Amino acid sequence: MSSIVELSAVELAAAIASGDISASQALEAYLEAIERIEPQVDAYNEVLTDHARTAAANIDAARAAGEPLGPLAGVPVAIKDNMCTAYGKTTCSSKILADFKAPYTATAVEKLHAAGAVVIGKTNLDEFAMGSSTENSASKVTHNPWDLDRVPGGSSGGSGACVAARLAAAALGSDTGGSIRQPAAFCGVVGFKPTYGRVSRYGLVAYGSSLDQIGPMTVDVPDAAILTGVIAGHDTRDSTSANRPAEDYLSEIETPIENLRIGLPDEFFTDALDPQIAQAIAKAADMYKSAGAEIVNVSLPHSRIDADADGKLSSYAVACYYIVAMSEASSNLARYDGVHYGHRTEEDVEGIVELFSRSRAEGFGPEVIRRIMLGTYTLSSGYYDAYYNKALKVRRLIKNDFDKAFEQCDVLLCPTTPTTAFAIGEKTADPLTMYLADIYTISLNLAGLPGVSIPACLGSDNLPVGMQLIGPEFSESTILRAARMYEKISGVTRLIPEIARI
Ligand code: GLN
Asked: Which residues belong to the active site?
């Protein structure tokens, strides 16, 4: 048997269920890997050793007593630190929540507990999930396990890095504009953003409430399928959660889709796309074709990516997303004022207004402050129609384009990112360049659609190249099966960086 940390979550659950290894043994293997590798990667804000040891021991006791085990019994899973857990801290990698202990656990995490998963730690992120590199964290900089001088992507960079480096069997991330898929692409893992409303947002600290969605980050597609099946489903505590029962995505994952129609969005293939990524997508399309799929060209005019003479990118979708996301963020983050929630200034203040403003100025980092200010501006009277309302109209046009494209195809195939993982520090001086890292991922959040990023291949400098499959609402099963088809025909799956090899 391969070493414990090289098993997938599905395999590990099977090995524990059959008694080949115990949940405690599995956990200790991961804790040992964390001790060795985590100091170089810095994926975790907090490793919950005691909590995890108790949880693993409980699984072993339940098994010994002959009690039924859940589908993820004993599997160590890491949680992005913007999901509430009633144990440990929930910091959102922000100084303003540095000591916050949540009074309850997020529904998605509760569902993992119910399935027997062992929560092993909370992972680093860009502060309040605002960023594309995890460099906006007030906690630490996470390093890409494939090249420690590069970013893991963001905002779920800690979750991506910890799965890539085998410091957890799987992780949860959240995706507002690409924060599961982009770090998955940079770290060479699978990242799945379900349809908006498919997974409850209860207990996910809100960033852009009309965009946010929790999803799994895993070493392969069957793992993404099992985790999605576990965390999905209706939740009366989230009024935006879809009233549809959870599905078993794993049972049908190995069944290829006959007559699959794959659409390539014309507008996504510009000169500004890294040629090795363009080639990887073209090769993937060829492989699907050889496997019997039909390839069609489709158009997403309002998600168009333009490049000027200097190669600088622009897109309606990016502009629209940042207005919607910042407007919602400015409203959602109003609760952190040192009274309701979060850090309170210790300075002498005169009155409540100064208390609020000083506490917020001390607690929030520069990117969060920028977004609150921009979002407040786009929502303010006189500008609301010019910015926020207009962005909502563009959002509808973007959605209409997708609806039209899905009349011609079952899934869309496109890049996840315009480049592979960039260097730490490369984009921190220019927020706009950083925003463009999500140029391929944000339009589907605006449209509420599901999408997965899977590794397409290893590119130059031994860095993973991701590719994205997008489908209509609630087409989780189709997307995951199509992704699994690629894993099988290409043989590209479970990429392991040197640092994680034993
Ligand atoms: N990078 C995008 C942003 O900063 C997306 C982040 C996310 O999906 N949470 O908003």
From this structure: 80, 155, 179
Mutate to test the pocket of ligand 1, among 442, 444, 446 (most ligand atoms within 8 A of CB): 442
- Answer yes or no: is the C-beta of 182 below 6 A from any ligand 1 atom: no
How many angstroms separate the first and last alpha carbons of the chain? 13
| Widest distance between CA atoms in the chain | 71
Please state the separation of Cα 397 from the chain's center in Å. Answer: 25
Q: What is the pLDDT of residues 112-148, one digit of tens each?
A: 999 999 999 999 999 999 999 999 999 999 999 999 9
3-state class percentages of the chain: helix first, strand second, coil last, to nearest 5: 40, 15, 40
Classified as helix, coil or strand, 411 is: strand
Ligand 1 pocket member 176 (CB < 6 A) = yes
For 409-437, how does the pLDDT look when each residue is reduced to its tens digit (9 = 90+)? 999 999 999 999 999 999 999 888 888 88
DSSP E strands in 3-128: the ranges are: 44-47, 76-80, 118-123
Ligand 1 atom nearest 325 alpha carbon: 10
131 lines ligand 1 (CB under 6 A): yes
Our mutation pick for probing the ligand 1 site, out of 125, 174, 176, counting the most ligand atoms within 8 A of Cβ, is 176
* Residues present in the chain in total: 502
Measured CA to CA, the distance from residue 55 to residue 219 in angstroms comes to 23
Kindly list the structural domains of the chain, giving each domain's residue range(s) and its CATH number in brackets, ordered by start.
1-502 (3.90.1300.10)
Span 7-50, pLDDT tens digits: 999 999 999 999 999 999 999 999 999 999 999 999 999 999 99
175: Cβ below 6 Å to ligand 1? yes
Is pTM, for the whole model, over 0.70? yes
CA 79 to chain centre: 11
From the CA of 260, how far away is ligand 1's center (Å)? 31
**Three-class HEC string of 76-111:** EEEEECCECCCCCCCCCCCHHHCCCCCCCCCHHHHH
